[in-house]
Design a protein that fits this description.
Number of helices: 19
Number of strands: 24
Distance between the termini: 12 Å
Strand content: 15-25%
Low-confidence stretches: none
Oligomer: single chain
């Protein structure tokens, strides 16, 4: 059965029942149909005296086209915890339409470890992303209108940093010229689009702690600079109130369920290679109050999502994971060992050994850079041979890594009980989280801290433009913010061709800018793009709808 067929066969409970199982009353949620609900922000106040559950972060080795299965593992682990008598709640990001119709497909898990209703979650869901795009583009419209109406703020049209956004992979919109057609149609200028999940509004929504904090953060957005070189803020345009109005429902966490009826908060969706890559602070905190265990994930490999989870989200929201689950697959390690995607079904234990250093690096980062307990979850794929699984288990044992086979895709929660028991044990261990840099360091030192200690770089090369931008940000007083490094997800370096665990490479920093509303400094390295493009054969080509409205081809 396909993922979609499995999802259609699920026996979902009405979301009202899921809410009741969490102890929520009718005034605590708003129904979005029979199986989706938004949770009132007042619930956190009602539960503030209740102790938090344990926080479990699921991350992974460096991604490959073979797939790793973080979301599947996250969902399966929560179901597995419930199987062994624990009360677990999932906290995930919402999928972006760009990857859904592009190369990745959906992001609601897979096999017998999914969140449902799968089609709704992957397509529009409760409209959060549309609200984020509308708020983003309202600000863009108000910027250009202000200039058209006389430009009282003396905004330098060549120094506008705010872009429009759309939640779709569309390389054609990366660089555009708009405002053409004469004075009545605006001021001609170079412009461009980001994908919605890379927008600062998305990051702000996910880091905000309530409506008041959301509005303050929106007001703090820098939209560009005036002719004197001083920043112009969203609040200078008086746009933050209207933007907050557009986002007043989007900020409320969404509640759905897994195939096994485990509660799942699915909210927010920043990319981890060009943003901080975690679900909303509000959803995480709700899950911590509603369950004994909150199982959440961070996007892409641990060098991206997990690093930003701990260095940005945890610092901002005063959170700390009680343990980390590192997802690895035989297939991905074979690719890091030099096997092409078309040859993955051939047994190759030597390739696993060649690719194993990638897993070593990620696990050691959790153990020694962030000083947290970690378990390796080997996400089993149908084509994995027993010899290959045994080889990977042997290598993990040689390095004394705690390791468990995860079989959530094929067996759901019942295939994850061993991992669940290990997680329970690890969460009971005492740990103090460390970081690769201190907040009082310079911007350059923070970047070097991540590049050297987390990525394994030998050096960082700051291009002249980046050095100038850093000096300006420090002059403006932003050196106290954490850094959000944007780089390729396919390598520990900024070169996607350097697979496995390269050492001694140089990270090249091309551009540095501040997301003052979100509260971090964005560092662009390599050839990273904030607007992806569609692949040669996009997933959209295989998606269709029957005459009776049934969606086909979504995965």
């Amino acid at each position: 059965m396909t993922d979609l067929e499995i999802a259609h066969s699920a026996k979902m409970l009405p979301v009202k029942t899921i809410c009741e199982n969490l102890g929520l009353g009718e005034d605590d949620y708003e129904l979005y149909g029979k199986y989706k609900a938004k949770i009132s922000l007042s619930v956190l106040d009602k539960l503030k005296q209740k102790p938090n559950g344990k926080l479990v972060l699921v991350t992974a080795i460096t991604p490959t086209p073979a797939g790793e299965g973080k979301t599947t593992t996250t969902i399966g682990l929560a179901d597995g915890l419930n199987k062994i008598g624990k009360k677990a709640v999932v906290a995930l990001r919402e999928p972006s339409l760009g990857p859904v119709f592009g190369i990745k497909g959906g992001a609601a898990g897979g096999g017998y470890a999914q969140v449902v209703p799968m089609e709704d979650i992957n397509l529009h869901f409760t409209g959060d992303f549309h609200a984020i795009g509308a708020a983003n583009n309202l600000l863009a419209a108000m910027i250009d209108n202000h200039i058209h109406q006389g430009n009282a703020l003396n905004i330098d049209v060549k120094s506008i940093t705010w872009k429009r956004c759309v939640d779709m992979n569309d390389r054609q919109l990366r660089f555009i010229v708009d405002g053409l057609g004469g004075k009545a149609n605006g001021t001609p200028r170079e412009d461009g689009f980001d994908i919605t999940v890379a927008s600062e509004i998305m990051a702000i929504l996910c880091l905000s702690t309530g409506i008041g904090d959301l509005k303050k953060r929106l007001g703090n957005i820098i939209i560009g600079y005036n002719y004197s070189g001083e920043p112009v803020y969203c609040r200078d345009l008086k746009a933050q109130g209207a933007m907050t109005a557009l986002l007043k429902d989007a900020i409320k966490p969404n509640l759905v369920q897994t195939l096994e009826n485990t509660p799942a908060f699915v909210h927010g969706g920043p990319f981890a290679n060009i943003a901080h890559g975690c679900n909303s602070v509000l959803a995480t905190k709700l899950a911590l109050k509603c369950g004994d265990y909150c199982i959440t994930e961070a996007g892409f490999g641990a060098d991206l999502g997990a690093e930003k989870f701990m260095d940005i989200k945890c610092r901002s929201a005063s959170l700390k994971p009680d343990c980390v689950v590192m997802v690895a697959t035989v297939r991905a390690l074979k690719m890091h060992g030099g096997v092409s995607k078309c040859d993955l079904n051939k047994e190759d234990t030597e390739a696993i050994e060649r690719g194993f250093p990638n897993l070593i690096k990620h696990v050691n980062n959790i153990l020694h850079v962030f000083t947290l307990p970690v378990v390796v979850a080997i996400n089993r794929f149908p084509g994995d041979t027993e010899k290959e699984i045994s080889t990977l288990m042997r290598l993990c044992k040689e390095f004394e890594f705690k390791t468990v086979i995860a079989d959530g895709y094929a067996k759901g929660g019942s295939g994850m009980t061993d991992l669940a028991k290990m997680v329970v044990n690890l969460c009971d261990m005492y740990s103090v989280m460390s970081h690769p840099y201190d907040m009082d360091r310079s911007i350059e030192d923070k970047i070097r801290g991540v590049a050297v200690h987390v990525y394994g770089a030998g050096d960082v090369n700051f291009l002249p433009r980046a050095k100038k931008q850093i000096a300006e940000l420090e002059r403006l007083g932003f050196s106290n913010l954490p850094v959000c490094i944007a780089k390729t997800q396919y390598s520990l370096s900024d070169n996607p061709e350097l697979i496995c665990a390269p050492i001694g490479f140089t990270i090249t920093v091309k551009n540095v800018k501040v997301s003052s509303g979100a509260g971090f400094i964005v560092v662009l390295t390599g050839d990273i793009m904030t607007m992806p493009g569609l692949p040669k054969v996009p997933a959209a080509e295989n998606i269709d709808v029957t005459d009776d409205g049934e969606i086909l081809g979504l995965f």
